[in-house]
Amino acid sequence: MSNDADQLPIPAVPEGSAASVPADSLLAQEIKRRRTFAIISHPDAGKTTLTEKLLLYGGAIQLAGAVKAKRGRASAVSDWMDLERERGISITSSVLQFGYRGYQMNLLDTPGHADFSEDTYRTLHAADSAVMLLDCAKGVEPQTKKLFRVCKQRAMPIFTFVNKMDRPGREPFDLVGEVEHVLGIGVVPITWPIYKSHVFRGIYHRLLKRVYLFDAKHAGSTQLSGSEIAPFQVTGLDDAILKEELDDYGYSRLREEADLLEAAGDTFDRAKFEAGEVSPMFYGSAMNNFGLAPFLDTFCELAPSPSPHASTGGVIDPITEAFSGFVFKIQANMDKAHRDRVAFMRICSGKFERGMKVLQVRTDKTMRLANPTTFMAQERTIVDAGFAGDVIGVYDPGVFEIGDTLTAGKKFLFEDIPSFAPEHFARVVMIDPLRRKQLKKGLEQLAQEGTIQLYRPPEGREGDTILGAVGALQLEVVKYRLKNEYDADVRLETMSVEFARWISRSDGADVDLVAFGRENVGIPAVDVRGRAVALFAGEWQVNSAKRYLPDLVFAETARGVVQRA
Description:
Elements lengths: L25 H7 L1 E8 L5 H11 L24 H6 L6 E7 L2 E7 L7 H8 L4 E7 L6 H12 L4 E6 L8 H12 L2 E4 L1 E6 L2 E7 L4 E5 L17 E4 L4 H6 L2 H17 L5 H5 L3 E6 L8 H11 L21 E9 L8 E9 L1 E3 L3 E4 L4 E4 L4 E4 L2 E4 L2 E3 L3 E5 L9 E3 L11 E2 L3 E7 L5 H13 L4 E4 L9 E4 L2 H15 L3 E5 L4 E7 L7 H6 L4 E5 L4 E5 L2 H10 L3 E4 L1 E2 L7
Parallel strand pairs: 1-3, 1-4, 4-5, 5-11, 6-11
Antiparallel strand pairs: 2-3, 7-8, 8-9, 9-10, 12-13, 12-21, 13-20, 14-19, 15-16, 15-21, 17-18, 22-31, 23-25, 23-26, 24-25, 24-28, 27-29, 27-30, 28-29
Helix pairs in contact: 4-5, 11-12
């Protein structure tokens, strides 16, 4: 036996996650234990609560905070912006990293508010899998459908977690049917709810053939009962303890439903799951922590480790290729004292080391990435190394764009992250002309980080700056942040514009926006990345532009950036 007791052991790779990896391949082991995922949901389904509880179970926090914080309560750890704490909602995407039973979890905490779907779209681009959170009483809601479609387009593996089982809700079989019918994806229940006198008391894990019974005194929907990990006992379907804990109705219902699931339910097919065709379903309550431990354990086993990414240089393997990654989010002023900008980078392959030189492919410039950080909301930790699947923050002096590819090996570009057409538009009216410089800087930085889309008149023309947003609340956030972070007070005037379309010529030549403006079929503009845009008052105007200007192409999404000199 070795006497190297003082040396720190290398973390063991979780069972089943790296069976095909050679024992001496430390890089492969590190990558195989990464789990990078996002949670998608409709507002108020309990996403931020679930996020907090996953951090609680991962040991990242000792006490879960109330999301809709009242006086004397802790605000949610995952929310860093003052406005988020005031309203009790998640507005910006954040990155939360924590360990769990030998796995390295990278949770991309996306906004649940309906008005922040574009930020969520970009964040899903950086995730390897997603957890779709449903309210047991409401089922599949509109925002869930939107975000599910984005995951489906990327063939992303999707877990389904039915939340709020401690409250009155729909029958579990009804929810299975609704997900299959509305979203068109197969559903395989992995855990199943157990009741006593119609009170949620535990779950039955079908794969493990285990019953998890939770303490009755923790069954209430209270912040106090859910602030710590819920105690539970593990038993089996035929165990006498189970019969004693449940009433006759609860026990007979569980046996009947378990038999029905085995007889009529589909078996779990891992290949179909990884192709995004089948979703494993779990039941529980994030509020009082019932069902979270079995879900998290099973999630770690089933969720994919970092997978290959498509690029202009072919498929980039996460283990065999040198370091590469892409920027999917830019956040200004996370630390107001330093007025900094942080670029969030998803590592796609290899190992990142602090201070290493990388190529920014868009500008063809080499740069050194010093002081990389990991995050727990606004708290940062400098890291010396990162591996494929990790998300790290790097200081941005104003050189990064969303979608930028960084590489330490061969030169290539990852697929572009699209920009989505806004649905709300407003003119920016400056209240104090002496703050013009601060306003210009604030608008440009907020537009570059993707908070809003910024449109200016074409070169050589005068006019007001126009903001475009996927949701109306985004405009309110911009006004708040301009005042709070840049000391620039503005008034936003709503415009009678409904559509924005990016313009290009079918022959590949440059678009003459001045000539387009003379046609009076829309408002010509240029976005923050130098792309030609037209703003339309309605669908009739879009159709008129297509009819009168057949040489132009009008797109609802835009990819790529205009190269800067």
